[in-house]
Amino acid sequence: MSSLKETQQSIRLKDVHLDSLCKELKDIHSRILEEIPEVARIAVVSYDHRNSQLYTFAESSTGVNVFSNYSFPLDSCPNLKICAEQRRTRVVDDLPATLNRNNKHSNWLLDQGFKSSYTVPIYTGQNFIGFIFYDSHYKGLFTEEIQQKLTIYCDLIGFSVNTEYSLLNAILTSAEITKELSPGYKNESKEHMERMSIYAQLIAKEVADIYHLDDEMIESVHIFSRLHDIGKSALSTDILLKPTPLAVREREVMRCYVPDGINVVDKILDNLGCPSHRCIEVLKSIVSCHQEFLDGTGYPNGLSDTEIPIPPRIVTVANIFDALTSHRPYKQACSVSGALLELEKMVQGGKLDAHCVNALREHQEYLVEIIRKYPESDPSVSF
């Protein structure tokens, strides 16, 4: 494995300042409208190779509702799959005559009155990472001439997507190497990380309308929930791998992992050239606040109520739920229903966000499925 320094140098993003992709799209869209006013919507859909799903990610539109919080398998759309595999664009000149009302997205497009579309796949190197969609209320808009005019904008959007993609993966790669260099923390189970990211994503999607979370924010919570306890990389193996409950003094030392986590994140970002992006604020809030409670009894800063951002509220609930439903050398796992009961007690005690807990309650069968799919492989080293 390459050293941490070598990897960070290879993915260094010096002096990069990124707005959210939604803002980037809106800026680009405004420029397109000056030249091609019939383009009513631009959307970027991301591709997750781990589950072969396409996810709504960012969009800019004029005069239509936003379509968000939706995913579907790439295999369910053969035409798009061909575009991705063969690096081909797609033009649909007459959407009403072409689309069937067999899914939520098709229904939405038709209900919004879109008549034509132009689809461009996006890649990082040889890897497919998503699509750009242009939609219009006019049939047959996307002629070869219009496609040619849009080429430069496709490049700009592709650059913005790739830069954000590179930033996210640079942070994750650096964090993974940091983990591997820690004798105790590297034993943190991959299953725990996977469950955490799934629970956090589920909660974020369910509370998105309540807390006005866009798809880009949901994805940041999904990705960075994996790094909530990165500060444990600074702790000794005596504490991290202790098979019995921690003593009072050991618990006090354990609590230091939160500020240690911020230091680790700051070092990673410094080595990446101190890039600036909204997702970094999400990462820092998750690492620094995921042990805070709404009643002010959490740590390290005793924050309460609105002092605690929504992303760490989500991760706090996901983390406690996972701890309750996971086996430990010194305790048995709770059932999903039992864990939800404990979470509800914490809601009533003013500690947890009720909306986040309710989000889990609505998906109990799915939670059972995730626990079965990603079980703790070695309880003796899980924590």
TrEMBL record:
InterPro entries: Cyclic_di-GMP/3'3'-cGAMP_PDE, GAF-like_dom_sf, HD/PDEase_dom, HD_GYP_dom
Domain of life: Bacteria
Name this protein carries in UniProt: HD domain-containing protein
Gene3D superfamilies: 3.30.450.40, Hypothetical protein af1432 (1.10.3210.10)
Domain HD-GYP: 167-376
Alphabetical list of Pfam families matching this protein: HD_5
Coiled coil residues, start to end: none
PROSITE patterns the UniProt entry points to: HD_GYP
